[in-house]
Amino acid sequence: MGTTFKINCKAALRDYTLHPRISYQTVTSISGPLVVLDKVKFSRYNEIVHLYLENGDVRMGQVLESRGTTAIVQVFEGTSSIGVQSTRVEFSGKSLRIPVSEDMQGRIFDGSGKPIDNGPPMGFIFELQTTDLEDVHAGSPINPYSRIYPQEMIQTGISAIDTMSSIARGQKLPIFSVNKYSHNAAANVSVGCWAST
């Protein structure tokens, strides 16, 4: 087997617990909040990255797309003053995680888990005293095929609804009407029909 194959296998089987960070200085383009990196190996969707700028600033981003050796990263704090040649990007091997505690109740946070309600600081993601971290993307996506098939259909008395988009009990449905016909009147007709079934 070739040397390149061995290197790729070693990187794919890397134990991110012991060696979590991989660094690259291969930014090829910047477009709005997105940074495109090339010659990147085994980046993962939703992986958190840290961008080290020439002026010493550190910004955080997330891998939005990983195709072959190219990774597209969304920078959370914006891409101003990011240099194509000088920016070093470090892949963390982890998805976004936030601290979870009772102190979070009633607080307001941004998408990165930082408080934005002018309350006391909670401690940043990577400087925590707690081990209770929850993955933001935890759980499996909703599978519409695993839901219970609707059995109880409702007749509204409005032929357009009954024939074109029948309604099952418990289902949500937007109610549209023409300009001169009140939305409330359409809703009242629907509710009246549902109540009688």
TrEMBL record:
<dbReference type="InterPro" id="IPR027417">
    <property type="entry name" value="P-loop_NTPase"/>
</dbReference>
<dbReference type="GO" id="GO:0046034">
    <property type="term" value="P:ATP metabolic process"/>
</dbReference>
<protein>
    <recommendedName>
        <fullName>ATPase F1/V1/A1 complex alpha/beta subunit N-terminal domain-containing protein</fullName>
    </recommendedName>
</protein>
<dbReference type="Pfam" id="PF02874">
    <property type="entry name" value="ATP-synt_ab_N"/>
</dbReference>
<feature type="domain" description="ATPase F1/V1/A1 complex alpha/beta subunit N-terminal">
    <location>
        <begin position="27"/>
        <end position="93"/>
    </location>
</feature>
<dbReference type="GO" id="GO:0007035">
    <property type="term" value="P:vacuolar acidification"/>
</dbReference>
<keyword id="KW-0813">Transport</keyword>
<dbReference type="InterPro" id="IPR022879">
    <property type="entry name" value="V-ATPase_su_B/beta"/>
</dbReference>
<dbReference type="InterPro" id="IPR004100">
    <property type="entry name" value="ATPase_F1/V1/A1_a/bsu_N"/>
</dbReference>
<dbReference type="GO" id="GO:0046961">
    <property type="term" value="F:proton-transporting ATPase activity, rotational mechanism"/>
</dbReference>
<keyword id="KW-0406">Ion transport</keyword>
